[in-house]
Amino acid sequence: MLLTAKEAAEYFKLNEFTVYRLAKAGQIPSFKVGHSLRFRSDVLDRWMERKMDAERSMSVLIVDDEPGVVDAIAEIVRRANCEAVAAATGHEAIDRFGQQHFDLVLLDIMLPDTSGTEVFRHIKSVAPDTAVAIITGYADSQMAVEALSMGPLILLQKPLQVADIRQILATFARGRQNTAGEKQ
Length: 184
Prior knowledge:
Blueprint: E1 2-3, H1 5-12, H2 16-24, E2 31-33, E3 36-40, H3 41-54, E4 59-63, H4 67-79, E5 83-87, H5 90-99, E6 104-108, H6 116-126, E7 131-136, H7 142-149, E8 154-157, H8 162-183
């Protein structure tokens, strides 16, 4: 699918001018049609995968009690060359979080043993810089509203779209690169 600079900016969740500047500098694959830049979404996806290959693999904890959802998300995460670790319950997520560092947590808000908000609270108390994306089929539920009030996070509504997961991985990978650059 062909994208304009504006559509590519929306795709990457960047400012349109930033996308245009990066494309003109040869940092994002693009081509000219008349006087305008165009982007192919499949080329952008492959380019993003290569960019992520070049970086240290992110570690992603996927917390959801639906095995099909976990398997689908894990496949997308692995294709982005990130480590995917699954937990089916809140207590399992807390245990895994105690054993390993995670760059990103994809957290279902409705879990069989405890609420996702309790898991979110634990994660933020142990590792406040860990990025968390809440997954819910009920974006207007009290738990989702409570989670949103506890700090910066992304809310993903089920059914999940592949592009949404890819964008989150790319966004957090980009944020991690920016943070690493600031530390140097």
